[in-house]
């Protein structure tokens, strides 16, 4: 019995243990779980593959970025190297430019006179003088004696007559002006070719300048292009004139810039000492709403004053006086009853500080000269110093030196050629400037009268060289070797040299016309001179040549 119960219990326990709900059989679900695992493994493998691709893409992007950064660094490094190389070239260029500038300044200070050598002259002239028949000394002497020397007496008589009349006219002008309101006129001075004894072309015209000053308590304060003020390149050689009170500070009083308060008073500018209003400034010949002297207003005032002065003294003379040229306000003409006439220019000027440099209201503007930038810009003339320099140098030259003769012959030839082919960019002032440069550069003995032919050739060669380079510098401006005896203002000696041929660079048509006229003059030189030369026997000419050898 117990064994039976034991068996029954064993069967029950075995049944319970093997019941599927209590202990499920793993072998029965193996196929199902394996498929899920395989599926999950595939999904995992796919996700790992995608992750690998993403990582590979990120790595590729990072490598590309790294390469780009490295390339950029290389570019920056190369640009730095190029910049260093460029800086080196820039520095080298600046050094070369400075060397050229130093050489140019030395050239301006007098080294250029070495270019007068025969070798350099021939290099400069090129084809200009080839085939040119240059007149000999005998022909030049005969031409000068017949055509030019006889005009000296006529010029002297004309100067004396014009100066006497101008003094009388200005004295009458002072009498008709209001001394409390009008400008104060000083004595006139003669300048230019008539007073330097080298004018040859008729009609003879005397150039007289008349300094004037404002009424008290006013004065003129001038500003030039080389005084530190800003003037563009096309305004070099000009200046402006400001009308100020004599007791007014140049830099301006502080009372104009700050509020002093009601209980404070400026001792320099009281209510009774204020600047004139705009209308009264215009009475002082200033440009509208400014304090700058107006050249057009000055000329209008001067013409009216001259007309009034002539009406007062006209009964004393047996001739008529009139303004002859509309484009030259100071041009006057004396007409005699016989039909003859005498022309002269009477031009108002303003003195520059305490020197003999003057601001001129209207300048004879021919050739290269351009119009004034505005009516408040005044041209500076150095005519008084030019006359003094010629007189000073003439004292050191041999007796009967040929410097004036050369200038007269050259002026005659150029004027005659222009009458045939039309005007060119060259003027008599350019010719005189060439002579002034050579006067300073050449030894005194080179200007002996027997060297007329050689000196004339030197003038032509130097002029041809200047035309070739488009450079002819003003004699006084930037010239550090002006004789101290002249008392020339140092500010202009230290200024940048002023190129009188600068317009040739801007106007190529005028330059081409000028060069053609110059070369045509060289070709026609012998014909022009022979036209006014007394016939010289061939034997006499040959004898002169033999004596000169």
Summary keywords:
549 residues; alpha+beta; ten-stranded mixed β-sheet; 15 helices; 11% strand; disordered C terminus; Mab-21_HhH/H2TH-like; receptor; coiled coil; glycoprotein
Describe this protein's structure.
It is a single chain. This protein has 549 residues and is an alpha+beta fold. Helix content is 50%, strand content 11%. The protein has helices at residues 2-17, 30-108, 118-125, 137-148, 151-176, 278-283, 295-313, 383-394, 403-421, 428-441, 452-469, 490-493, 502-506, 508-530, 538-548, and strands at residues 184-185, 189-191, 205-213, 218-224, 238-245, 319-323, 331-336, 341-351, 358-360, 378-381. It is elongated. It is found in: Cell membrane; Nucleus outer membrane. Keywords: Cell membrane, Coiled coil, Glycoprotein, Membrane, Nucleus, Receptor, Signal, Transmembrane, Transmembrane helix. Enhances Ca(2+)-mediated inhibition of inositol 1,4,5-triphosphate receptor (ITPR) Ca(2+) release.
Structural class: alpha+beta
Number of helices, counting only DSSP H or I runs of 4 residues or more: 15
Count of β-strands: 10
- Output mean pLDDT: 79
Radius of gyration: 47 Å
Helix content: 40-55%
Q: Biggest β-sheet, characterized? A: 10 strands, mixed
State the end-to-end CA separation.
Answer: 181 Å
Order of helices and strands: HHHHHEEEEEHHEEEEEHHHHHHHH
**Assembly of the depicted chains:** single chain
Strand percentage, roughly? 5-15%
Mass-distribution shape: elongated
Low-confidence stretches: 22-31, 108-126, 256-260, 268-278, 536-549
């Amino acid at each position: 019995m117990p064994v039976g119960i034991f068996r029954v219990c064993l069967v029950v326990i075995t049944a319970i243990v093997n019941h599927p709900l209590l202990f499920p059989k793993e072998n029965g679900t193996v196929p199902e779980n394996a498929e899920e695992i395989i599926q999950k493994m595939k999904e995992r493998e796919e996700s790992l593959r995608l992750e690998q691709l993403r990582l590979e893409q990120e790595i590729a992007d990072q490598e590309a970025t790294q390469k780009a950064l490295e390339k950029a660094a290389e570019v920056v490094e190369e640009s730095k190297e190029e910049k260093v190389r460029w800086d080196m070239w820039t520095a080298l260029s600046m050094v070369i430019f400075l060397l050229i500038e130093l050489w140019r300044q030395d050239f301006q200070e007098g080294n250029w006179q070495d270019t007068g050598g025969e070798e350099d002259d021939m290099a400069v002239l090129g084809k200009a003088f080839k085939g040119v028949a240059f007149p000999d000394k005998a022909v030049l002497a005969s031409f000068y004696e017949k055509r030019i020397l006889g005009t000296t007496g006529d010029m002297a008589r004309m100067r004396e007559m014009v100066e006497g009349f101008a003094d009388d006219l200005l004295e009458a002008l002072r009498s008709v002006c209001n001394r409390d309101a009008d400008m104060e006129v000083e004595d006139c001075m003669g300048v230019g070719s008539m007073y330097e004894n080298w004018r040859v072309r008729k009609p003879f015209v005397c150039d007289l300048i008349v300094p004037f000053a404002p009424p008290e308590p006013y004065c003129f304060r001038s500003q030039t292009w080389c005084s530190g003020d800003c003037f563009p390149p096309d305004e070099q050689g000009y200046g402006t004139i400001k009308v100020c009170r004599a007791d007014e500070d140049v830099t301006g009083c502080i009372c104009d810039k700050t509020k002093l308060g009601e209980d404070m008073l400026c001792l320099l500018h009281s209510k009774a000492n204020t600047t004139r209003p705009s209308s009264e400034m215009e009475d002082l010949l200033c440009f509208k709403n400014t304090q700058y002297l107006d050249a057009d207003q000055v000329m209008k005032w001067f013409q009216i004053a001259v007309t009034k002065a002539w009406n007062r003294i006209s009964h004393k003379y047996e001739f008529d006086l009139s303004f002859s040229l509309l484009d030259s306000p100071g041009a006057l003409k004396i007409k005699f009853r016989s039909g003859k006439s005498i022309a002269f220019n009477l031009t108002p000027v303003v003195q520059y500080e305490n020197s003999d440099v003057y601001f001129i209201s209207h300048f004879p503007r021919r050739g290269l000269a351009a119009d004034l930038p505005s009516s408040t810009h005044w041209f500076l003339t150095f005519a008084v110093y030019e006359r003094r320099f010629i007189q000073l140098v003439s004292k050191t030259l041999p007796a009967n030196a040929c410097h004036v003769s050369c200038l007269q012959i050259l002026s005659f030839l150029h004027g005659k050629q222009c009458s045939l082919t039309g005007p060119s960019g060259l003027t008599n002032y350019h010719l005189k400037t060439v002579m002034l440069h050579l006067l300073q550069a050449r030894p005194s003995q080179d200007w002996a009268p027997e060297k007329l032919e050689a000196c004339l050739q030197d003038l032509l060669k130097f002029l041809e060289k200047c035309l070739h380079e488009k450079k002819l510098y003003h004699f006084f401006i930037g010239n550090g070797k002006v004789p101290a005896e002249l008392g020339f203002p140092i500010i202009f000696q230290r200024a940048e040299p002023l190129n009188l041929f600068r317009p040739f660079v801007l106007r190529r048509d005028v330059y081409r016309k000028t060069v053609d006229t110059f070369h045509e003059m060289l070709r026609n030189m012998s014909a022009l001179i022979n036209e006014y030369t007394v016939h010289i026997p061939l034997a006499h000419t040959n004898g002169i040549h033999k004596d000169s050898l």
